Amino acid sequence: MSGHSHNFLKLVNDARSRVREIPARALAAELGAVPNAKLIDVREESEYAAGHIKGAEHIGKGVIERDIESRHPDKSTPLYLYCGGGFRSALAADNLKKMGYDNVVNIDGGWRELKDLLPVE
User: Does the model's pTM come out above 0.90?
Assistant: First the structure.
């Protein structure tokens, strides 16, 4: 966290106060218990291309608010978001909540932890 600015961390912590968050190690069990869950990688396209969790859908943080309704029109669909460490995905999850998505989960630890826990592509 030391590489992030104070104001960015304030923004992330504010978003985290409004979204459900799980640790990366809990994701496999959650996905197993929620068969219609969607795993969404909100990192940059180049990050996704370099490696991502098997089966994850890419919708970058820069366009997720624009594209989510066409990709997932049912606002009750369970959406699990991750980024590199859980910061950008917290911001994206908060915005999806504001758009009426009521089953959004941020994955704390993001890619940095998930890559060692789940199959990658």
Answer: yes
CATH code, 106: 3.40.250.10
Q: Is there a domain that residue 119 lies in?
A: no
Walk along the chain (121 residues) in steps of 10 and give the mean pLDDT of each run.
85 97 98 95 98 98 97 98 97 98 98 98 96
Q: Outline where the chain has alpha helix (H).
A: 6-16, 27-33, 45-50, 64-71, 88-98, 110-114
Evaluate whether residue 121 is within a structural domain: no
| 36 noted as active-site residue | no
Which residue in the list 68, 83, 92, 104 is annotated as catalytic? 83
Please give the tally of structural domains in the chain: 1
